Structures are given as C-alpha cells and as structure tokens.
C-alpha cells in the first residue's frame, strides 16, 4: 500500500513559525531574568494535565550569551531606590529662577519717583548746547503699498482754487533734511510712541519718547562736518541725546508755551514727570500714592493760558485734572470716569480749555464741558460712534476736531461753525449735531509693530487755512486741510519704514515722523 505524501510547508508558513519560536524564546528568557531578580515567584515548571495548545511548538535553539554583552539592568524609580529625583530638584530650582526673573522684571517696570539729574538719566549722547538743551534764542480695510503715492505733482497742478494751489505748492516743496539720511538719525533704542517740537522758531528741536521710557533729544540745526574723500570711514553720526526718564512707554508729552524750559512727559508707568531743559533735571509731578498701583497714562495736555494745570487720560477710561501748585496727594486730583474702556487720546480746545474731546476704544468720540461735569454720572455734550475704535481726537485753535479710527477713516468735525465759543454750561448736541462734516478714507491698519496713527494739527499756522499731518502706511506723511483736501504727501527714497508718529511744529512748516526702529524723518 503506497505511503501518503506529506505536504511541504510554504515559505510564508516557515517564516511565521520561526517568528513564533523566536518570540517564545524571548518571553522565556525575560521570565527567567525576572525570577532571578526576585520580581515574582518562580512558576511551576511541571506541565499541567491539560494541553494548553493544539499546535506543537518547535523548540528554539538556545541563545549563547556573548562575553562582551552588557547585563540587562532592570529600571527602578528613584523613589524605590531611596534617592530624591533629580527632576524635582531641577524643577524647584527652575521655579525659583523664574520667580526671581519675574520679580526683577516687575521691579524694572515699576516707576521711579526719584529726582533725576543728568547723570541719572543720560543713556547716550551729550548735551546739545552749553549747559542746556535749548538756547535762548469710507471704510474698507487698507493694505499698505510701500512707496506707492496717493497724491502727486499732478494733483497740485490741476488745482482750480488759487489759494489752495499756492498752499499745496508750499507744503509739497518741503524737503527731507539732507544733513544725514533718516537711517542714521536713530534717537531712541525702541519704537517711537510720541514726538513733539519745541515751540521755539530759532531752531528745530525735537523730543521723542519710545516704548521703554527713553527720551531722545535732537537738534536739527546742526550741520554735518565736511569729510574728505580719504576720511569717509570717520564720518560722524549726528549729535543726539538719549535720556532714561520712565520705566515704561512714554505715551505723550507737552510743552506749555508759557513754560518753554519745561517738558512734561506721561507714561504707562503711571507717572507724569517734568524735565527742566536748562538745569537738565527731571522731577515726578504726579503719580499714584502706591508704587504698586497701575494706572497707565495714555495722553496729556495743558491749557494755553494756565501753565500750572495738568490734564490727562488713562487706559482705564479716567480723565484727571491736577494743579501743580497743590501737594501731590490723591485728594488734590480731580477724577472723572468717562469711559469703561481705554481712552487712547484727548485734547483741550486751546481757546476755551473747558471744552475737550476724547477718543475711546468703545468706538466713540465724545465732546465734554468740564464746567458742568458730574463726578458720579458724567454726561458729554454729545458723542459720535464709529464702526471701530477711535484712536485720537485732536482739537485745533478754531474749534475743529480731527479723529483717526480703525475703520480706515479720518473724520473732521467743525464745532467752530456751530458756535462752540459761545456755548453755555449744559449745552447739548444731538446725533445730527455730532455728525462729522467730512470723512476722508485713510489706511489706519498699523498692526502690531507700528505705532497707532494719530492726526496732529499745526496750532498756529501762518495762513487762514488750517492743516494737520498724519502718517501714511505707504511710508509717507500726508498733510490735509480742515476740509479734507490733501495738501502734500511727504516722502523720500531713504525712508525705509513707516513714519507712524507724525507731528507739526506749532507755527513753522516743519514736519517730523518717527519710526518703529527709533529713527526720525524731518521735512523743512
């Protein structure tokens, strides 16, 4: 009788059985090692009477241990070994270091109430002249397109109004200061937040406040020394003085015309300081009673006829008035809660300073009369609401207001024509009375790294036509009239950043712009 033929295993089945055998050998080895280390008791090696598997297993070949093979060490926690974990020590050290760093950072940001001399304030540079800094003498989201003009020479030539044409020609003829390029006029280490011209007409003296509390001082009357061709490497930078006045952002500054040697600076460090430009000293004029109180000051102003009274607003919506002749006590400050949100900017009407305008994050521009302003329930003369937040409200000398808003518009209000100078206390304006007279489309999308754009009037123009300047995201500074007519668009090939902080000199046709890198541009 023929023997039945045995079917040979396929290659796949052979490989599968080999894998099973290798796995079983590894498991057995691990079990033996665990037993030898005392992890658990040895299991009985006697087979039970019940077959545990229906498939016969091939006995694997014994694994020969290499002589140089390192023994397997079983992992044990530091807790079981009775050793304190290194990670806990490191974590505690890291937490302590972090707390120390946080404390140091908080201390750095706390305001300093000390009386400063030049040695305490000077960061870099030197005094500019002798012992003093001054001598005796609409509505679509905009997209920035660098160097693309929105106002050109053709707009000037095609002007029909002769007076407007003459003013356009005058303002468009302003030239970028040519002694040094803007890239070499770095006044402050950080981003510029605020600027001001000294009212003097003898020379252009510019003050600049930055993000970290530095004050830069620049005298644009200086001349660049003549350099021979073989001395180009020795070409000096312009003379600049940089002082450290505050511990946080300098948000606003003002020079009262009756105190030309005093510069008042307001800061997010909750203080207002007075810089004596002759003695080169700085003194704190107002701050909360406790250094731990955080009340960042957003804007500051002073009346033309009162050199002793400070007005300011805060990021918490407060409006305050303080007489400098009073002791620096909380009871000496009069406060009004005018908004539940940040007041970004405000200004007094120069001719009638009891009227003032505020711009707020709550999207409103409000007009107020301090003569009849309740502390418990302050009510404005009127308000106008924009689609998005309003950045600043600037009064000029004849009762007109210019605002900038994140809805990409400049709104112009003419309260002079509505008789603001003759309004009695308690006067009110309805929604129609607060409606802007002109709306100009203007890209105000500064983003995170560019300082918010704010309009700035020339307070004493040498003509009947009122004008203000505001930065252009295409790296220009635009000049407009109070009717919204554009007069000029100032620029230059060497301007490599947005001159976001733009200011007019009080009476001269001098315009300055400050950038996020602490540099300035000047047109004269």
UniProtKB/TrEMBL annotation:
It holds the Pfam family WD40. InterPro entries: WD40/YVTN_repeat-like_dom_sf, WD40_repeat_dom_sf, WD40_rpt, WD_repeat_DNA-damage-binding. The keyword DNA damage applies. Residues 41-70 are annotated as: Disordered. Keywords: DNA damage, DNA-binding, Repeat, WD repeat. The keyword DNA-binding applies. GO terms for molecular function: DNA binding. One of its GO terms (cellular component) is chromatin. GO terms for biological process: DNA damage response; regulation of DNA damage checkpoint. WD repeats lie at residues 355-371. Belongs to the WD repeat DDB2/WDR76 family. DNA-binding protein that binds to both single- and double-stranded DNA. Binds preferentially to UV-damaged DNA. May be involved in DNA-metabolic processes. This is DNA damage-binding protein CMR1. It comes from Talaromyces stipitatus (strain ATCC 10500 / CBS 375.48 / QM 6759 / NRRL 1006). The lineage of its organism: Eukaryota, Fungi, Dikarya, Ascomycota, Pezizomycotina.
